[in-house]
Amino acid sequence: GQDRRGLAEMAGQMAQTPQYGSVEPSAGPAHTVVEPDATQRFKKSRSASNARRYTAVRVGFGLLSTVAAAMYLGGYSRPHHSDTELYHPSPNSCGKGCDQVLDDSVGNGTQYDEAMAMSHVRLSEATYCVGSTNPTYWNCTTCDAGVTVEYVIEDNGARVLVGYDSEHEYVFVAFRGSYDVQNYIDDLDALFKAPYKDDKSSANVMAGLWDEYKKLYDDVFTAMQETALAHGTTKLALMGHSSGGGCATLLAFDVARGAVDGFEAKDIKYVTTFGSPRVGDPTFAAEYDAYNLNSARVTHFEDIVPHLPMESLGYQHVTTEIYYNEHSSSYTVCDDSADGEDDDCSNSCSPFSCTSIDDHLSYLKVVIGDAGC
Known about the structure:
It is a single chain. This protein is α/β, with parallel strands linked by helices. The protein contains 7 helices and 12 strands. It is globular, with a radius of gyration of 20 Å. The N and C termini lie far apart (39 Å).
């Protein structure tokens, strides 16, 4: 009933309000595309002549090594804002084989479901393989039956799949990560950006990640709305690997804070990221965690990317970390807290042993990237 009322309201808004921009729809019923109104907040043109270029500030391994050495030799305490009351939900202590059931009418914190995570990692891998909404292209190794890709959104190397999962009855948004992990690490733009000042938030996020997300978000919002209307549900599952996981986190934050018309925090049923970098500072982590979303940040043994950008640069992960051992045969639901990340999980190899790219390209025994297609 709530879904239908929300959809009715969304339909009314979309009928009265010009859309943010055009995207490539799938074969099937035609989607009406309305030119964007200049007064709207999320204005964008798909024209190549207006494409925004991504600018990165190089932060090489030399800087990372220097900072790590300074931490090791000079001692290190996790950075936090002393004047900010950090709120983190208590993580679910239930381990493998847990028999807890999500109440899908409210947001109630992280309750990790490994079978659902497997579905999400397979969709995350599919983003590396599928570049068309043509159903004949939905034939990759991890392209599961029951999944319909409604939109493929691409911009300057970034890609997002938006569609519907008929088995789980939700709209999904899956962000692809970087094609070249080593280049991503070398070109990491670790400077801070404060994009939420208009909402009186002092939260900072990684500038490079925000720029990647910003060039996609208006088309993603439109695709989410169209897909929700087409399938009669506002339930959402958001996911991604590597930088795509960071973008999924930013999208979840936008939905939760009411920045995406037609959706709200309770519509988010799952946020699942795999090998995500740190997205923002402790203020961002606190504000994200305060929404108490069912959010699982999956890490794998000595994967290097979850340790970037480094904590010493003022970054902190959002909750809740799900840490897999080397062979992905068992996992730990980690005890993230207001003071930061659980040092008994992925951070246990920090700062010198968390250097594996191989672990970054394998999650839940699924090979990630072109090699898995």
